[in-house]
């Protein structure tokens, strides 16, 4: 990685950790902060993730593990609540780079795209529907809720991304680093069991 991409990755990583930005917006803001042209080649997400890991180890080693554990516990509560839809945890909470500013992303695999929405309504859970980019290249519906995290003593954004049931087959393809990009309930339970403080 050249020095320019390293610098962009480092600035983006700081924005991810300190402001809770997602990788895409963080990279674009880093470009502006450094004062580079918009056409400058951006680092890949893996490069930013490596910079996030470094930033966390240097500046957040005393707080981040506990915050991550709290977010994973809250994610598991929501996964168990939505268990009928084969939930999979993804994003920073799954990959281990989340802080208290990170949102939780849970992918649901439904026979009927409205069934997750109906379950939230049945449980009188307020949500905001919107459309986001999905891992399959298209767009998917996201149902976003604010969930109180008792350990962090604050609300956390939980985003339920609704995929077609058949998309679960593609959900387990490993990332470029050879790791699973998401995990089901059993995988999250294993993470919690293995990483108790």
Detailed description of the structure:
This protein is of the alpha+beta class and 197 residues long. It folds into 2 domains: 3-59, no CATH class; 64-194, Beta Polymerase, domain 2. It is 43% helix and 19% strand. It contains 7 helices and 5 strands. Strands 1-2-5-4-3 form a 5-stranded mixed beta sheet. A hairpin with a 5-residue loop joins strand 3 and strand 4 (139-149). The radius of gyration is 17 Å and the shape is globular. The N and C termini lie far apart (34 Å). The model has no long low-confidence stretch (mean pLDDT 92).
Any chance you could write out the topology, listing elements then pairs?
Layout: H1 3-19, H2 23-34, H3 45-59, H4 64-81, E1 88-90, H5 91-95, E2 104-110, H6 115-122, E3 128-133, E4 139-149, E5 154-164, H7 185-194
Parallel strand pairs: 2-5
Antiparallel strand pairs: 1-2, 3-4, 4-5
Helix pairs in contact: 1-2, 1-3, 4-7
């Amino acid at each position: 990685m050249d020095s320019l991409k390293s610098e962009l990755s480092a600035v983006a990583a700081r924005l991810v950790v300190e402001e809770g930005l997602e990788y895409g917006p963080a990279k674009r803001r880093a470009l502006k902060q450094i004062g580079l042209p918009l056409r400058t080649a951006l680092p890949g997400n893996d490069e930013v993730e490596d910079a996030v890991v470094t930033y966390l180890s240097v500046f957040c080693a005393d707080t981040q593990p506990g915050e991550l554990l709290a977010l994973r516990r809250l994610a598991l509560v929501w996964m168990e609540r939505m268990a009928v839809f084969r939930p999979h945890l993804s994003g920073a909470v799954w990959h281990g780079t989340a802080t208290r500013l990170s949102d939780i992303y849970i992918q649901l695999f439904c026979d009927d795209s409205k069934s997750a929405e109906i379950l939230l309504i049945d449980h009188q859970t307020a949500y905001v529907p919107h459309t986001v980019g999905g891992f399959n290249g298209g767009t998917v519906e996201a149902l976003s809720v604010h969930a109180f995290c008792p350990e962090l003593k604050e609300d956390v954004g939980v985003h339920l991304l609704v995929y077609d049931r058949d998309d679960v087959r593609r959900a387990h393809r490993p990332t470029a680093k050879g790791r699973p990009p998401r995990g089901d309930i059993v995988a999250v339970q294993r993470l919690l069991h293995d990483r108790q403080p």
